[in-house]
């Protein structure tokens, strides 16, 4: 028990898995939250009597908070220690969840989601830093695979759990469910995570923070306003986008001057990190943007309940669970440039079915397609993230994972906004029904009434219309979804371009080559 040495075995020992368990709980909580809320949007619309664009801010506000706080996590992890900061992030997320359940208005819910996002934004980059230090760069692929399986419980279980809670209890429980998980995670983190070794000598880049965090928030606010405005010409869209982009560009030019910038863009001199980040960014725009529309198709065009929509999404997560452990083991042995293109090909094959959807498309076909996409997804995301981080020096891992997480959040926000705008514009092209208006006096379109009647059949009794109008409206709505999926499909194809540049030769992980890093590295006690 007196000898300590850095782990060199490829096997994951009990000490590493104990630390990984803490990160899994935090990741499940934050991922579960995103997927649960995605199926609750129609419920929020009727509960708070708000438009889709207004309710969508329950997700956008969370993302904005994430993007604002992620740049701080690299410096804060070094300054205050990863254990202390991770527990603060868990506490913020758990408190935010409890407050969300008390919201009486859509404005209150959006505000509390910001608090949740401030905690959630730090959970993932801190978790990746803790994991990499615990396992060492040479085992990061294997560790990502082990962690990936339970982390997929969020995407699989989120829509199912959310649908069940909404159908059997109330929407409040989709947030209350986080409270016991949060308390358990806090106790577990206190017991399992190693003591912190903060580095108070590094100065904080206040100038960088004043440019980057507001810049990202403004840019993403403008992008997220697109679905409501419907056009880039609206000042609410291009104003914040231009201001945010100017601040981000100013930060990029400035960031090479200080010794310890808020976001270390010098890391992009590492070719592996750059190519992996670009590949991940393009993939996230396509896949995450379209991913939000899959349950919407089941809810709005097929008229399924939130629980059924969640169950219909399960094959994707099951497919990913099957390939993720294999991909993780391969990532430690085979260059990802030889495996990721095959995984992307599976995603393309599965995705094509969604470009052909109509109101009667077979659920067997769609379920099979989601399963094939899941197989591809399990072999894509974790290996790319592994490639991005494994060749970094140990002291750069926290900042490297921060870069990767910021790109993920920006890509996800852009993808969600672009897909929402395309779908909204397509649906707005539907034919108005003569003499039928909504409570505000606006004409009701065939597609609009058809979608509304799928969730609220009583509408057809209040405004009797020819059944052929509803049929035409559903056909139009399905075509609108198919057109949007075509755009996402083209973006997935575009991912093959940077993926072709991923490393095709095995490159060794960087050793922990100085005493300070050895002190912070994971140890096996004999």
UniProtKB/TrEMBL annotation:
Transmembrane segments: 12-32, 52-73, 85-104, 110-131, 143-166, 172-191, 203-223, 235-254, 275-294, 306-327, 339-357, 363-382, 403-423, 481-502
Coiled coil: none
Alphabetical UniProt keywords: Cell membrane, Membrane, Transmembrane, Transmembrane helix, Transport
Gene Ontology terms for molecular function: transmembrane transporter activity
Assigned GO CC terms: plasma membrane
Protein species of origin: Micromonospora cremea
The protein's name: Drug resistance transporter, EmrB/QacA subfamily
Topology relative to the membrane: Multi-pass membrane protein
Stored PANTHER family: BLR6921 PROTEIN (PTHR42718:SF46), MAJOR FACILITATOR SUPERFAMILY MULTIDRUG TRANSPORTER MFSC (PTHR42718)
Location (main, coarse): membrane
Subcellular location per the Swiss-Prot or TrEMBL entry: Cell membrane
InterPro entries per UniProt: EmrB-like, MFS, MFS_dom, MFS_trans_sf
Major facilitator superfamily (MFS) profile domain location: 19-507
Family annotation (Pfam families): MFS_1 (PF07690)
């Amino acid at each position: 028990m007196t000898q300590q040495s850095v782990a060199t075995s490829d096997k994951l020992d009990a000490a590493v898995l104990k630390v990984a368990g803490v990160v899994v709980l935090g990741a499940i909580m934050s991922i579960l939250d995103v997927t649960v809320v995605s199926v609750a949007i129609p419920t929020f619309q009727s509960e708070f009597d708000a438009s889709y664009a207004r309710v969508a801010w329950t997700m956008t506000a969370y993302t904005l908070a994430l993007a604002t706080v992620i740049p701080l996590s690299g410096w804060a992890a070094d300054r205050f220690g990863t254990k202390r900061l991770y527990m603060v992030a868990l506490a913020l997320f758990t408190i935010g969840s409890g407050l969300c359940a008390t919201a009486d208005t859509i404005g209150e819910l959006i505000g509390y989601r910001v608090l949740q996002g401030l905690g959630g934004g730090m959970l993932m980059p801190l978790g990746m830093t803790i994991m990499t230090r615990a396992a060492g760069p040479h085992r990061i692929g294997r560790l990502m695979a082990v962690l990936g399986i339970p982390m997929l419980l969020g995407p699989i279980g989120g829509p199912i759990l959310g649908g069940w809670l909404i159908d059997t209890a109330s929407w409040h429980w989709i947030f209350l469910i986080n409270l016991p998980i949060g308390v358990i995670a806090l106790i577990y983190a206190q017991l399992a995570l190693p003591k912190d070794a903060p580095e108070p000598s590094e100065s904080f880049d206040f100038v960088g923070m004043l440019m980057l965090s507001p810049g990202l928030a403004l840019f993403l606010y403008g992008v997220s306003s697109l679905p409501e405005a419907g056009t880039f010409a609206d000042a609410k869209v291009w104003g914040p986008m231009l201001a945010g982009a100017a601040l981000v560009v100013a930060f990029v030019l400035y960031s090479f001057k200080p010794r310890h910038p808020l976001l270390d863009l010098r890391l992009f001199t590492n070719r592996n990190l750059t190519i992996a980040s670009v590949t991940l960014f393009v993939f996230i725009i396509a896949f995450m943007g379209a991913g939000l529309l899959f349950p919407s198709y089941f809810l709005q065009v097929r008229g399924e309940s939130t629980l059924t929509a969640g169950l219909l999404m399960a094959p994707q997560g099951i497919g990913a669970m099957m390939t993720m452990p294999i991909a993780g083991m391969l990532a430690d042995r085979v260059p990802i440039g030889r495996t990721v293109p095959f995984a992307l090909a599976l995603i393309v094959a599965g995705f094509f079915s969604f470009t052909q959807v109509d109101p009667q498309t077979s659920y067997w076909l769609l379920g099979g397609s989601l399963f094939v996409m899941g197989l591809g997804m399990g072999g894509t995301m974790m290996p790319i993230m592994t490639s991005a981080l494994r060749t970094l020096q140990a002291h750069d891992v926290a900042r490297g994972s921060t870069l990767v997480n910021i790109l993920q959040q920006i890509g996800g926000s852009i993808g969600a906004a672009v897909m929402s705008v395309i779908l909204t514009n397509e649906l707005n092209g539907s034919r108005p029904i003569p003499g039928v208006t909504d409570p505000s006096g606006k004409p009701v379109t065939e597609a609009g009434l058809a979608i509304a009647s799928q969730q609220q059949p009583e509408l057809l009794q209040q405004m009797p219309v020819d059944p052929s109008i509803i049929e035409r409206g559903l056909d139009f709505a399905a075509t609108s979804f198919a057109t949007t999926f075509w755009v996402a499909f083209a973006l997935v194809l575009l991912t093959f371009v940077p993926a072709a540049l991923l490393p095709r030769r095995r490159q060794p992980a960087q050793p922990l080559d100085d005493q300070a890093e050895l002190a912070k590295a994971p140890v096996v006690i004999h």
